[in-house]
Write a structure and sequence with these properties.
- The protein contains 10 helices and 5 strands; from the N terminus they run E-E-E-H-H-E-H-H-H-E-H-H-H-H-H.
- It is mostly helical.
- It is globular and about 65 Å long.
- The termini are far apart.
């Protein structure tokens, strides 16, 4: 498409990992299994929390929304990546690319803000147990969840609109398996320093700000737990935080590595591997982590399985 004397790109080519076709078929099968496991695992978590009164508490209310985000974030990237494994010409439309980029960062941002809210919930539960039900009321929990979704929606909106307004006149090859921000920006036929700066300025306070809140919460949590006189009490308190702390460590570690840098033009292969981990592997692992590291979820899951097996007899 020509606009004046310039050609406007109508589609992008996603390089992906530039591997032999036979390997791509194997990867398609692998990620099909991962995608199914992610969807089924998170739906199980959502169903258990929704249907069982024992999981009707703020901690599991946050986990309910985290599982929704995991499913939506995975569906934003993985199906298109799998489709491209089977195609010789790996393309995505211009507006499809911008939409994928927007929703990927919307769900990603919302997830990290939600993880920070979950750490705050654990802080109140352990440091102020007698006031927990008052501080973490149903209304407060709803506000925190809505805030996490809105932070993702509005923080990503401005950079996306700016990217949409940039001229893309070729080349149209993105050195990634999805429309990540940095490789997409470097295809623009204009000065992108302002957009890169806005991207960096927004990602810095949201990602590092939520990480800082999480770290502060866990500093107080650990110091409080260490003052518990009995070993049984300390172990029980640690067990309520173990799954969340594991998810936070994996999630923040990879995202800080990928995005919180002023320039991301180098080390794209490392970025692609880290992005693959956050978009496909982590959403599959999170239900497993929260199930196997949480006794109450295990109990509800076992009871649900026994109930289902009993009804089939």
């Amino acid at each position: 498409m020509e606009i004046g004397n310039a050609t406007h790109v109508m589609e992008f080519i996603l390089i992906g990992f530039a591997i032999p076709w036979e390997i791509e078929i194997l990867l398609f099968l692998l990620f099909f299994i991962i995608l199914m496991a992610t969807i089924v695992g998170n739906i199980i978590i959502i169903t258990l929390i929704f249907t069982d009164y024992r999981l009707h508490s703020p901690m599991y209310f946050f986990l309910f929304h985290l599982s929704i985000i995991e499913i939506l974030g995975t569906l934003t990237v993985v199906p298109k990546m799998m489709q491209n494994f089977l195609l010789e010409r790996k393309t995505i439309s211009f507006y499809g690319c911008l939409s994928q980029s927007y929703f990927y960062f919307l769900f990603g941002t919302s997830e990290y803000v939600l993880l920070a809210m979950m750490s705050y919930d654990r802080y109140i539960a352990i440091c102020y147990p007698l006031r927990y039900s008052i501080i973490m009321s149903g209304k407060v929990c709803v506000y925190l969840v809505v805030g996490s979704w809105m932070s993702g929606f509005f923080s990503i909106l401005i950079p996306t609109v700016m990217k949409l307004g940039l001229p893309y006149c070729g080349p149209n090859v993105i050195n990634h398996f999805f429309c990540d921000s940095a490789p997409l920006l470097h295809l623009a036929c204009a000065d992108i320093s302002l957009v890169e700066f806005i991207d960096f300025i927004i990602s810095l306070p949201i990602l590092l700000g939520s990480l800082f809140l999480t770290l502060i919460s866990y500093i107080y949590i650990i110091s409080t737990i260490l003052r518990i006189p009995s070993a049984t009490g300390r172990q029980k308190a640690f067990s309520t935080c173990a799954s969340h702390f594991t998810v936070v460590t994996i999630g923040y570690g990879t995202s800080v590595f990928i995005y919180v840098r002023p320039s991301q033009a180098s080390s794209m292969n490392l970025n692609k591997i880290a992005s693959l981990f956050t978009t496909a592997v982590t959403p599959m692992l999170n239900p497993i982590i929260f199930t196997f590291r949480n006794q109450k979820v295990q109990e509800v899951f076992r009871d649900s399985v026994h109930k289902c097996l009993g009804n089939t007899k």
